[in-house]
């Protein structure tokens, strides 16, 4: 029996770095993402193409039993809800309706469905560690991020509620990774200031070397998950390690 790790949005950025980290550690990894990902072939890697923003497709996949099969012999299960859309990067009134409609199922519904399913189906003696990738945007009010921030705040509170339910051998935390140099950051920097008043802040972070690498952030998140006190800090941040 070994650690079985499920990572959403593993095709790029932080998710890809997390998948590489756990594979190098010898863990089995189930990667969930829409796109194919360039990772070194490994018998420990199971790839599942899926649009996590398509709630009906995700429910159908969960009903098919693939997740139960993946975790059936696990001593420890790690779920990392990493997949997210940052758009719309715009103040209310300038947001695209389609971007709001796409963000909510991906950023909120999918993590809740996966957490619920694993709590229900995990082997009785297995430890389940659920990690939502949180954000300061869910803990502070930023102009232009009412949708993204609301989603991250929802995950914070979901973690609090799951912890309050005291499921046996289930631990959960919402962990902010800091500002990581990913495609999401590039998307943010392309925003127009009229839509997203904070864009200059992120341009400055990039030019001043204020972004952490995906690999460094992945190692910090994995360190928090591996800690024997994981879940004691339900609302966590990798920057407390620095």
Automatic annotation (TrEMBL):
Compartments, as annotated in UniProt: Cytoplasm
UniProt keyword NADP present: yes
GO CC annotation terms, alphabetical: cytoplasm
Predominant place of localization: cytoplasm
Full protein name: Short chain dehydrogenase family protein
GO BP term, example: tetrahydrobiopterin biosynthetic process
A UniProt-annotated Pfam family: adh_short
Family matches, as SUPFAM superfamilies: NAD(P)-binding Rossmann-fold domains
Keywords: Cytoplasm, NADP, Oxidoreductase
């Amino acid at each position: 029996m070994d650690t079985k790790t499920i990572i959403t949005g593993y095709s790029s950025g932080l998710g890809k770095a997390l998948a590489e980290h756990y594979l190098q550690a010898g863990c089995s990894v189930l990667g969930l993402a829409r796109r194919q990902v360039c990772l070194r072939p490994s018998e420990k890697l199971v790839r599942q193409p899926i649009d996590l923003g398509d709630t009906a497709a995700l429910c159908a996949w969960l009903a098919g039993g693939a997740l139960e099969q993946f975790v059936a012999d696990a001593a420890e299960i790690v779920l990392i809800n990493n997949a997210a859309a940052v758009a719309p990067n715009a103040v209310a009134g300038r947001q695209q309706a389609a971007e709001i409609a796409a963000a909510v199922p991906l950023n909120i519904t999918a993590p809740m469905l996966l957490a619920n399913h694993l709590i229900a189906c995990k082997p009785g003696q297995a430890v389940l560690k659920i990690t939502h990738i949180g954000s300061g945007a869910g803990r502070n009010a930023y102009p232009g991020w009412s949708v993204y921030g609301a989603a991250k705040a929802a995950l914070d509170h979901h973690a609090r509620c799951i912890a309050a339910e005291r499921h046996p051998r289930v631990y959960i935390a919402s962990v902010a990774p800091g500002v990581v140099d990913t495609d999401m950051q590039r998307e943010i920097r392309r925003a127009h200031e009229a839509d997203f008043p904070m864009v200059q802040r992120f341009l400055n972070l990039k030019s001043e070397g204020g972004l952490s690498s995906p690999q460094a952030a992945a190692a910090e998140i994995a360190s928090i998950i591996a800690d024997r006190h994981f879940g004691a800090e339900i609302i966590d941040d990798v920057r407390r390690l620095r």
